[in-house]
Amino acid sequence: MTGNPFTFGNPIRDPSRFFGRQQEIRQITSRLTSSAHESTSVVGERRLGKTSLLNHLAHPEVAAGLGLSPEEYCLVYIDFQGLTDITPQRFWQRVLGKAARGACDPEIAARFKEFGQRAESDLFDLEDLFETVSEHGLRIVLLLDEFEYVTQNPNFGSDFFGGLRALAIHHNLSLVPATRRELVDLCHSDEIKGSPFFNIFANVVLRPFGAGEVEELINGYLEGSGVSLTPEEQGLIQKLGGGHPFFVQMAGYYMLDAKAQALAPDKQAQVVIDSFEAQAEPHCNYLWSHCSESEKITLLAVLGLSRHKPSNKTTPGLTNLTRLHARAPLDVNSLHKRGLVIERDGAYSVFSVAFERWIGRELVAPEDEQESPASVEAWLSQGGREKLEPVKGALPRFKKKYWPIVADVLKEMSFEFVAGVVISKMF
């Protein structure tokens, strides 16, 4: 092996290294090539491949193969990450400067460049510019990465979004913004949230890969590397990565790194797990920290049910989850959109065994750091927590900051169920 074919950290830019997302690509391109040339919003959790997808669409050869020929479509990728102080004027200067470099029509490229260098411009100027684009038979497609840096920026008022909507509806402009949450949930004011701008999009939600897509990615990266993996080794990558392309790449990298050391199979597996979990820890922490308290309770309920002997009362479906936590249906919907839980045949599970293990390490208190029974009694005596009295014996096993979450789960599920199934088998 001359080099590890698996990489993680940077977006995928080489089309030969891009796998999966075929359904999402079809949805986006079918809207772009329709008679209305419609816009699409890409929604996906951190590291789920939004940037890689936009870069893939923007690649000239890929775009042409999808029916977006450069003679008709000018695809412009712009990344807004970190641009917290951008203004509408700077927005258009950046967009049109990029479009000038990507337009195949020299006259249109010159117009974009000239317009992008203007100190001031208004909506009428933009309409005239895009009317010229239309007359040349060209359509501009803006691939707007990290677009929440615009929607959450108070420099952008309702007039900006109204003008952008008008250009998208009446002129040859299509938009493909990518954000971590739905656009309407990423506004800096209720006025912006109520803007009709957000009505022009259909959402495409990126979720973890299915088993077939993960297998395709692994085999695609191994091709030509001179390395082969046993079914058990591929299975470990799938368990750790859980269909999350970033984590799959990470697990694949450490698997090949361990194989290069010629370790015994059991030692190799442990090295892969240890290396992966150390690298994945900050990313798991991010995912967990961006869950609400209710969503964390639902995650624990999913974990508890999924580790119990299968039966009608323990299948982690909506009925049983709702019985344990009333807000579970709302939480499951949000967690599923974010890719933190996956659904198969009506049952839910956490997307990765590595994330499950991280939750366990995060919640449980080391023996030498456990709270005393007196501390538990003092906590229970505050704020009407008397109803949690039956679970007090289990609380010291958890970090104190998680007692409100864990106590609720213990109360809802019964001490024997949680302590016997979740703690002993997961932790």
Strand order of the largest sheet: 2-3-4-1-5
Write down the overall mean pLDDT: 89
For the termini, the CA-CA separation is 37 Å
Annotated CATH architecture of the largest domain = 3-Layer(aba) Sandwich
> How many domain regions?
3
Category by helix and strand content: alpha/beta
Describe this structure in words.
- This protein is an alpha/beta fold and 427 residues long.
- It has three domains: 22-205, Rossmann fold (3-Layer(aba) Sandwich), CATH 3.40.50.300; 211-289; 293-426.
- Helix content is 52%, strand content 9%.
- The chain is built from 20 helices and seven strands.
- It has helices at residues 22-32, 50-58, 60-65, 88-102, 106-116, 123-135, 148-151, 158-170, 190-193, 211-222, 231-241, 245-259, 265-289, 293-306, 318-324, 328-338, 353-363, 373-380, 403-413, 415-426, and strands at residues 39-43, 73-79, 139-145, 173-179, 201-205, 341-344, 347-350.
- The strands form two sheets. Strands 2-3-4-1-5 form a five-stranded parallel beta sheet, with helices on both faces. A two-stranded antiparallel sheet has the order 6-7.
- Strand 6 and strand 7 (347-350) form a beta hairpin.
- Helix 14 crosses helix 16 (328-338) and helix 19 packs across helix 20 (415-426).
- The relative contact order is 0.09.
- The model is unreliable at 415-427 (pLDDT under 50).
In short:
This protein has helices at 22-32, 50-58, 60-65, 88-102, 106-116, 123-135, 148-151, 158-170, 190-193, 211-222, 231-241, 245-259, 265-289, 293-306, 318-324, 328-338, 353-363, 373-380, 403-413, 415-426; strands spanning 39-43, 73-79, 139-145, 173-179, 201-205, 341-344, 347-350.
